[in-house]
Design a protein that fits this description.
By secondary structure, this protein is an alpha+beta fold. It is built from eleven helices and six strands. The protein folds into two domains: 109 residues, no CATH class; 169 residues, endopeptidase domain like (from Nostoc punctiforme) (endopeptidase fold (from Nostoc punctiforme)), CATH 3.90.1720. 49% of the residues lie in helices and 10% in strands. The N terminus is likely disordered.
Length: 315
């Protein structure tokens, strides 16, 4: 007689307070550590400069010291390494104490920090492009790609280079999404990158496979004619515009990615209202504005969270 063996259920992992707090501490230490060399050399430059040349000498010394500190950190990454390791160790200790008192990290935080360890931390801290997140695989991207239609707006986020996330956060946005593109009639994407400095046309699989997070939005176009006019405007910018490094919405000859999509919709489909923000009085359209538009519907999304994406730099 054959006895059927039922699979033994694997109990879910218990959240680890030391890992969760350690990762948060490492990230805080990384950020603080990057500023320490600059602060230290700036202060030293001020003291030496003031002793040699008074106030103006101090100002010059401070500037030179700041420059030297920045270059020191950039080329050695000593600040982020030291700060991250100290922050990670302190975080683990605090997390252990908090865990003994009953604190448990949230499910999302626990899942994000499962891979954290002090042993593997140095190599992560020394690589500014490191992230524990992976780019979308063809299997993961397939469901979203199957739903895409001409005129759709695609938002993305790449966790390797986190500067754009931080810039959008500084402008008051969520920082969850950093890039925008629009889909043409052949289901290719039209967008503009800092690296290309001009609009580019890519196969749909490129934008899905080249990012860690992807979101598909569908504007409520009044008619097929609105889609055609919107895409025609986007096409007409090829060979005409360059990337807008100043993020000046009033200059049509230079456009950044969200501005490029915003103006295409404004010209071809004025019925689609996309709000605008004004940090410090400067008009901007960021990825959040497309998500917050009352005239766009969410079709598909992997999801993206600024805090967890930032934590991936040390987990």
């Amino acid at each position: 007689m054959k006895i059927q063996r039922l699979p033994v259920p694997i109990p879910p992992r218990k959240p680890s307070p030391p890992k969760a707090a350690g990762a948060c501490g490492a990230l805080a230490g990384l950020c603080a550590g990057r500023a320490v060399p600059v602060a230290a050399t700036s202060a030293g430059g001020w003291v030496v400069g003031q002793a040699l040349g008074g106030t103006w000498g101090g100002v010059a010394g401070l500037a030179l010291g700041a420059c030297a500190g920045y270059l020191l950190e950039k080329h050695t990454r000593v600040g982020r390494l030291a700060g991250g390791m100290v922050g990670g160790a302190l975080g683990c200790a605090i997390g252990s104490a908090a865990g003994a008192l009953g604190w448990q990290p949230s499910a999302a935080l626990a899942k994000e920090t499962e891979g954290f360890s002090l042993k593997s931390l140095p190599s992560k801290l020394l690589n500014p492009n490191y992230t524990s997140h992976h780019r979308l695989t063809p299997e993961e991207a397939a469901p979203g790609m199957a739903l895409v239609q001409p005129g759709d707006v695609i938002l993305t986020s790449d966790d390797e280079d986190f500067q754009l996330e931080l810039m959008q956060k500084a402008a008051g946005a969520s920082g969850n999404w950093t890039h925008a593109a629009i889909v043409d009639e052949q289901k290719r994407t039209m967008d503009i990158y800092i690296s290309t400095n001009q609009p580019v046309l890519n196969p749909l699989g490129f934008i899905f496979g080249d990012n860690h997070h992807v979101c598909v939005l569908r504007p409520r176009y009044a008619s097929p004619d609105s889609i055609t006019k919107t895409l025609d405007y986007a096409r007409e910018q090829f060979g005409k515009i360059t990337y807008d490094h100043r993020f000046n919405m009033k200059d049509d000859d230079k456009q950044y990615c969200q501005e490029y999509i915003y103006k295409a919709l404004a010209h071809g489909a004025p019925e689609i209202h996309v709000p605008m923000r004004k940090p410090l009085g400067h008009e901007l359209v960021l990825s959040d504005e497309f998500q917050n538009s009352p005239d766009m519907d969410l079709v598909w999304s992997t999801g993206s969270d600024f805090k967890l994406n930032f934590l991936s730099k040390v987990t």
